[in-house]
Design a protein that fits this description.
By secondary structure, the chain is mainly alpha-helical. The chain has one domain. The chain has 19 helices and no strands.
């Protein structure tokens, strides 16, 4: 099965262009205000605890776990604030373990991944999939957060994550389906969906993304405000939410397997990709799509487990980087012999995408510096990094639709008096995509203002319109922080 042209692992063609064919385990921190000054507004939920010490012991096991099982100790993080309070000794109260702060390095990676996704969907440059495999990075970060959250009861963690994910999707789905119905779409009769009862049932995926939602390949006319393929492009990013939801549901079992057999669990998805992503075995339909997504990005998700519990850091750096480089070289070699119409677009070559993404993520996490704040010149981007992490779901959901919205806006410029000359019109046509790239960011900002606060409501937090800095209110955190989510 080939990648979705519009939606598989950031596969939307550019708009306006032809479609491309060491410490001991400590007690669990008590709920309370987080030392992280930005509160609990991150869309990916729990703060990063950093990496814990890999408890090899004398023979790699302890009395409270079975043979081969990896024990993941809790980690106690002391911030400058709590350290200062302890040294002062004026309160006379027993010191309480502090909640770990966010790892700004990982926040930065997620922000870069989001920018790369938007740029790829706009420009369609295949080499961007090689430069930075955004989806693999995002799944790895989500896996790390999920591993930490599963120190709590699994059912409550899954429920929390689903709750945090669905309301933003409902708002997006309501707009998309409303526009489709206004244009006369009937899923029961649409030739693109197969029609009938099951096509109607599949509309449910706009509410809970257990599968791919239906949409017409073409609707309306090219002369309208939106081009006729707008529905396919708008629904493209929903594959990620489907894959994320299934990873969340499977994580308790995956983490159980990882603790007992780390290496087989880590490498099994890569082996599966070599089977289902190369044509050796073909699984048709929606089931095949889901299995291939799991295979391609499953090892990145489990790498998040390895990062969280410290296993990755216990591997000598030269060995980790050498092994990752060899795997990446294999990925490029495989891609070179399986180039399609998109050239070096790894989204169309599952085995190359899986191995290249895995290798890049290993190196990025192996060198992870665990910043408590952005250093040097990166500090100037602090507010934008904070905002993009707090509204990652909103940005990812809406960016494709907003890219299409840039077209009718820019087209208005052609009607201005100074654009009547052929030279001016030709210049605008030549630089059209660049102007789209300029315009997409204020449109994303408007979307953050208009619907981003729904992420706060879904997380049972006080809504904020522009969460790019400290949250002054800490009321209610003790009740909501414990189940903060969404990786």
């Amino acid at each position: 099965m080939t990648a979705h042209e519009y939606g598989r692992a950031d596969g939307t063609p550019p708009l306006g262009m032809p479609a491309a064919p060491g410490s001991a385990p400590g007690p669990r921190p008590e709920p309370g205000p987080a030392p992280w000054p930005y509160g609990d507004g991150e869309p990916y939920g729990d703060t990063y605890a950093g990496t814990a010490v890999w408890p090899y012991g004398d023979r790699g096991q302890s009395q409270d776990r079975g043979p081969g099982e990896v024990r993941i100790p809790a980690q106690k993080t002391v911030t400058a604030e709590t350290a200062g309070g302890a040294s002062g000794g004026t309160t006379g109260e027993a010191e309480k373990p502090a909640r770990p702060g966010r790892d700004r390095y990982l926040d930065l990676l997620r922000s870069v991944a989001l920018v790369r996704v938007v740029a790829y969907h706009l420009f369609g440059w295949a080499w961007l999939t090689v430069l930075f495999p955004s989806m693999g990075v995002m799944f790895a970060l989500a896996g790390s957060l999920m591993a930490r959250s599963l120190e709590r009861p699994a059912l409550s963690v899954i429920r929390s994550r689903v709750r945090r994910l669905l309301p933003p999707l409902w708002v997006f789905g309501a707009l998309v389906m409303g526009l489709l119905f206004l244009q006369g779409w009937n899923p029961a009769k649409g030739p693109d969906t197969g029609g009938g009862f099951w096509s109607m049932v599949s509309v449910f995926n706009y509410l809970v993304p257990v599968g791919a939602p239906p949409y017409p390949v073409s609707i309306g006319s090219g002369a309208g405000l939106l081009e006729s393929t707008w529905a396919e492009q708008a629904a493209g990013p929903l594959w990620y939410l489907r894959a994320y939801l299934w990873f969340v549901v499977a994580s308790p079992l995956l983490l159980w397997a990882f603790r007992r057999a780390p290496w087989p669990t880590l490498l099994f998805p890569l082996a599966l990709t070599a089977v289902v992503g190369t044509g050796l075995v073909t699984i048709p339909g929606e089931t095949g799509d889901a299995v291939q997504d799991f295979a391609v990005y499953g090892s990145c998700w489990v790498l998040g487990f390895a990062h969280h519990n410290g296993m990755l850091k216990q591997i000598p750096r030269y060995a980790a980087v050498s092994g990752a480089s060899a795997l990446m070289a294999f990925g490029l070699w495989w891609a070179s012999g399986h180039l399609g119409p998109g050239g070096w677009n790894l989204n169309d070559i599952p085995l190359a995408q899986a191995t290249w993404s895995f290798g890049i993520v290993v190196i990025l996490l192996q060198y992870s510096p665990s910043w408590q704040k952005l250093p040097g010149r990166l500090a100037r981007w602090d507010k934008l990094v904070t905002l993009s992490n707090n509204r990652a779901v909103t940005i990812y959901l809406w960016h494709n639709l907003l890219i299409m919205a840039t077209v009718p806006i820019i087209d208005q410029v052609y009607g201005l008096p100074f654009m009547r000359s052929g030279t001016a019109s030709s210049w605008l046509s030549t630089t059209y995509v660049l102007w789209q790239f300029v315009l997409i960011w204020p449109l994303i900002g408007l979307a953050v203002l208009a619907v981003g606060w729904i992420e706060d409501l879904a997380a049972k937090r006080k809504p904020r319109l522009w969460p790019n800095g400290p949250n002054g209110s800490s009321r209610g955190r003790a009740g909501t922080r414990a189940d903060a989510h969404h990786g």
